[in-house]
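Quick start: load a record and inspect it. Here is Cytochrome c biogenesis ATP-binding export protein CcmA:
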Amino acid sequence: MLRCEKLTCVREDRVLFKDLSFVIKPGEIVQVEGPNGVGKTSLFRLVIGLSLPYQGDIFWQDTPITDDREHFYQKLLYLGHKTGIKPELTALENLQFFQKLQPSHKNLDLWEILAKVGLAGYEDIITAQLSAGQQRRVALARLWLNDCPLWILDEPFTAIDKSGVKVLENLFLQHAAQGGIVLLTTHQDLSLDKKHLSKIILEKPQDNFYV
Ligand SMILES: Nc1ncnc2c1ncn2[C@@H]1O[C@H](COP(=O)(O)OP(=O)(O)OP(=O)(O)O)[C@@H](O)[C@H]1O
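Running the structure step on this input writes:
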């Protein structure tokens, strides 16, 4: 369970959000929604401990994430705006690298995973030569190669076409059905219904909302 209590985020003396509290339980998919610049990425950076909140606390399984970072990071898969793939390696080599980080998945068929993300026939191409959407697909293949219960995904669908979004939505449902958590942000409309998708809406504060 991920619990955030009374989070306040300040950037350059400007309050992005104040006293934001939420709980995400195993099996939930939650989308953070709001216009450009409202603070979605900033919220994710707080939640994963990359920056400190101005006020508030973040708990994983009732333990503050600052108390046991190592345990928290073992449970977390975070994909940010950058793809995090190595452009000089092929799609397959990138996956082989990710697989080495997850020994429990050493027997998974990487060709099959590349086919699942729509890269059959592109396995041996240097990723720098792939399109933006194909590069994003290589990065997203990591979702098939981990045991982490908590997925935090910052705009995972950037440059991904509709059929790719559908594949990922199904994967999120599968992850949630197994007790995982997906916390994501996207500007795309998702086809998941209210039963499967909750939302945290961030709104632009008043112009004079300064500390
Ligand atoms: N490191 C930083 N230092 C100062 N200001 C920052 C920093 N990071 C973000 N900001 C500011 O905080 C605000 C929120 O940025 P953030 O990236 O969280 O928005 P977002 O909701 O994710 O936007 P988008 O939908 O465009 O990705 C912006 O006005 C941005 O300029």
